[in-house]
């Protein structure tokens, strides 16, 4: 199994670990310290070695921060984790605050006193973030102190070792482009900015650029590393040499100079002493990276990571790989759905059993490299926790007469998948059906959207919510995220969300996943992956429009749909989609699964 169900959270750790940290801060002459859920790469995927927030508080979510002062502390999470944080963290030690509406900056302004010193790890806070922190410290008459060594590490007695996962070469026949071509494109982007070099801090950017994949973090084939790319000449890759076999090292040596991570700061200082103009992404690069360059005499050029957009816009080879991966995944998923309908009626199935069986069906393809994230297998009230991770402690029997939410994905060598389905168990109420149908209407609105070039995800986000809003309902997460090619299941810069301000471009892959979560009761989420399609003329229209191609091919649960709530065009879309699932996936199924699919996709 690629997923384990050990309980990673311990709320009782909060008080003793906070005491250890406060003692260390006192020794260092600091009055407070910030602990983000981040590593030096500022990514979502953090190895156990860098899970400082979890060690301190017990919180295991993918985004958050803790603040510790002498007599006060808090943990900050966004809307996805407002339920989870209260279950995982001792609220007496770390009261929960909303990361967006009650940000850490406001909390600090209300508590910092003149003359106090607030510490941060220079590699764990971005340039943009530190600017704001310095402003609020100045406002309070306090001082922000950047540290090279993290005080949490000094008191974390059983801290795991850094990961040394092996690196593999990702073949050009799957990547669609050679690394030399990609490097030349990025160097052209550097020259266009009139810069001399750029610093890459994101492991997925580095993986894409050098056509490599790694195994340093759970479920995502990332090689944790840094890189610098000059406007001309060979890039430099800073990666633990233990991750490289002789053959991989030899292949990379033709593309880049290879150094150890310990040499990274020296490489930055060299750029500075040579007076180079260096591109950094202020929303991704730690302040320690920026200051290493500027303190040595270099100049910063602040701009987006130049790899993000080329990586997000998939070439045709990558898109074909994604389509093949989704066909393979759909056949496994539909076999699971057939099995689930038989088993759940026995009232013995639990959340872990469902997650394990779905992984078994995917593994049976013979192509599964990993799951793409811990399966969110949410029964009853656990389904209302958006990013719920089932453990042996939290594991529930799947109750009758409620929806069951399962959000999962797979890593195949040719593509990454992510799908959520909400399934009827027993006899569900009319209210549950109404909520499901409102979510489905939002899903269909995104899938069928037509929009001009330059449209952002923020402009589309309302389409997924409008029917929920009319009913006085909403959901506290984005509608969609980007997805990589055998890389991160969450990939930027594209998003369908209130914060999605990057124009959508043909070739981008995004999720489409509106939801609704009545706390303590159940959850509903419906997710497909979509490819942004090239502009096409619309009969009678004045300008060509982009749209979406759906690549997830798994039926929606008709037992949860109120047909009368769907407009005729929505019903037509659903029937066409189900017919496509039958025709494309049906022939790949065993006889029993094919019969189940025929019934599940009957015309509405």
TrEMBL record:
<keyword id="KW-0031">Aminopeptidase</keyword>
<dbReference type="InterPro" id="IPR033740">
    <property type="entry name" value="Pept_M24B"/>
</dbReference>
<dbReference type="InterPro" id="IPR029149">
    <property type="entry name" value="Creatin/AminoP/Spt16_N"/>
</dbReference>
<keyword id="KW-0479">Metal-binding</keyword>
<dbReference type="GO" id="GO:0046872">
    <property type="term" value="F:metal ion binding"/>
</dbReference>
<dbReference type="InterPro" id="IPR000587">
    <property type="entry name" value="Creatinase_N"/>
</dbReference>
<dbReference type="InterPro" id="IPR000994">
    <property type="entry name" value="Pept_M24"/>
</dbReference>
<keyword id="KW-0378">Hydrolase</keyword>
<dbReference type="GO" id="GO:0005737">
    <property type="term" value="C:cytoplasm"/>
</dbReference>
<dbReference type="GO" id="GO:0070006">
    <property type="term" value="F:metalloaminopeptidase activity"/>
</dbReference>
<dbReference type="Pfam" id="PF01321">
    <property type="entry name" value="Creatinase_N"/>
</dbReference>
<dbReference type="InterPro" id="IPR036005">
    <property type="entry name" value="Creatinase/aminopeptidase-like"/>
</dbReference>
<dbReference type="InterPro" id="IPR032416">
    <property type="entry name" value="Peptidase_M24_C"/>
</dbReference>
<dbReference type="Pfam" id="PF16189">
    <property type="entry name" value="Creatinase_N_2"/>
</dbReference>
<dbReference type="Pfam" id="PF16188">
    <property type="entry name" value="Peptidase_M24_C"/>
</dbReference>
<feature type="domain" description="Peptidase M24 C-terminal">
    <location>
        <begin position="544"/>
        <end position="604"/>
    </location>
</feature>
<feature type="domain" description="Creatinase N-terminal">
    <location>
        <begin position="21"/>
        <end position="147"/>
    </location>
</feature>
<dbReference type="Pfam" id="PF00557">
    <property type="entry name" value="Peptidase_M24"/>
</dbReference>
<dbReference type="InterPro" id="IPR050422">
    <property type="entry name" value="X-Pro_aminopeptidase_P"/>
</dbReference>
<protein>
    <submittedName>
        <fullName>Xaa-Pro aminopeptidase</fullName>
        <ecNumber>3.4.11.9</ecNumber>
    </submittedName>
</protein>
<comment type="similarity">
    <text>Belongs to the peptidase M24B family.</text>
</comment>
<feature type="domain" description="Peptidase M24">
    <location>
        <begin position="322"/>
        <end position="533"/>
    </location>
</feature>
<keyword id="KW-0645">Protease</keyword>
């Amino acid at each position: 199994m690629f997923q384990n169900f050990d309980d990673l959270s311990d709320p009782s750790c909060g008080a003793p670990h906070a005491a250890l940290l406060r003692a260390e801060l006192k020794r260092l002459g600091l009055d407070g310290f910030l602990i983000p859920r981040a590593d030096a790469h500022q990514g979502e995927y953090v190895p156990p070695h860098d899970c400082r927030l979890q060690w301190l508080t017990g919180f295991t979510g993918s985004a958050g921060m803790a603040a510790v002062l002498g007599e006060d502390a808090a943990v900050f999470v966004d809307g996805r984790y407002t339920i989870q944080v209260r279950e995982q963290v001792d609220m007496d030690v770390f009261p929960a605050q909303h990361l967006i509406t009650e940000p850490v900056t406001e909390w600090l302004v209300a508590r910092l006193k003149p003359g106090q010193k607030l510490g941060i790890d220079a590699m764990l806070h971005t340039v943009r973030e530190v600017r704001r922190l310095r402003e609020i410290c100045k406002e309070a008459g306090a001082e922000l102190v950047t540290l090279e060594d993290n005080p949490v590490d000094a008191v974390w007695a059983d801290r795991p070792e850094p990961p040394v996962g092996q690196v593999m070469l990702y073949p050009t026949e799957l990547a669609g482009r050679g690394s030399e071509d990609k490097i030349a494109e990025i160097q052209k982007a550097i020259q266009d900015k009139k810069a001399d070099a750029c610093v890459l801090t994101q492991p997925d950017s580095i993986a894409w650029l050098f056509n490599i994949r790694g195994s340093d973090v759970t479920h995502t084939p990332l090689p944790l590393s840094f890189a610098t790319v000059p406007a001309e000449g060979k890039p430099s890759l800073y990666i633990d040499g233990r991750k490289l076999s002789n053959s991989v090292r030899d292949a990379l040596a033709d593309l880049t100079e290879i150094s150890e991570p310990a040499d990274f700061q020296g490489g930055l200082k060299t750029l500075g002493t040579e007076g180079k103009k260096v591109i950094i992404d202020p929303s991704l690069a730690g302040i320690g990276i920026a200051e290493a360059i500027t303190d040595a005499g270099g100049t910063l050029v602040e701009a987006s990571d130049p790899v993000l957009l080329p990586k997000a816009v998939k070439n045709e080879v990558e898109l074909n790989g994604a389509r093949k991966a989704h066909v393979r995944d759909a056949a496994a998923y539909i076999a699971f759905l057939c099995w689930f309908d038989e088993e759940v009626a026995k009232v013995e199935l639990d959340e872990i059993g469902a997650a394990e069986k779905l992984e078994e069906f995917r593994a049976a393809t013979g192509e599964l490299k990993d799951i793409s994230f811990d399966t969110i297998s949410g029964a009853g009230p656990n389904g209302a926790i958006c990013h719920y991770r089932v453990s042996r402690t939290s594991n529930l029997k799947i109750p009758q007469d409620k929806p069951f939410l399962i959000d999962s994905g797979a890593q195949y060598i040719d593509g990454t998948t992510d799908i959520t389905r909400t399934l009827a168990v027993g006899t569900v109420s009319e209210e549950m059906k109404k909520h499901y149908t409102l979510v489905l209407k939002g899903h269909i609105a995104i899938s069928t959207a037509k929009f001009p070039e330059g449209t952002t995800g923020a402009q589309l986000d309302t389409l997924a919510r409008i029917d929920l809003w009319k009913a006085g309902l909403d959901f506290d997460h984005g509608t969609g995220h980007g997805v990589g090619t055998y890389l991160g299941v969450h990939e930027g810069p594209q998003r369908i969300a209130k914060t999605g301000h990057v124009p959508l471009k043909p070739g981008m892959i995004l999720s489409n996943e509106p939801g609704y979560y009545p706390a303590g009761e159940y959850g509903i989420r419906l997710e497909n992956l979509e490819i942004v399609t090239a502009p096409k003329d619309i009969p009678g229209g004045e300008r060509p429009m982009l749209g979406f191609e759906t690549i997830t091919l798994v039926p929606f649960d008709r037992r949860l749909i109120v047909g009368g709530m769907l407009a005729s065009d929505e019903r037509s879309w659903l029937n066409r989609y189900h017919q496509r699932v039958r025709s494309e996936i049906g022939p790949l199924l065993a006889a029993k699964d094919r019969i189940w699919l025929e019934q599940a996709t009957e015309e509405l």
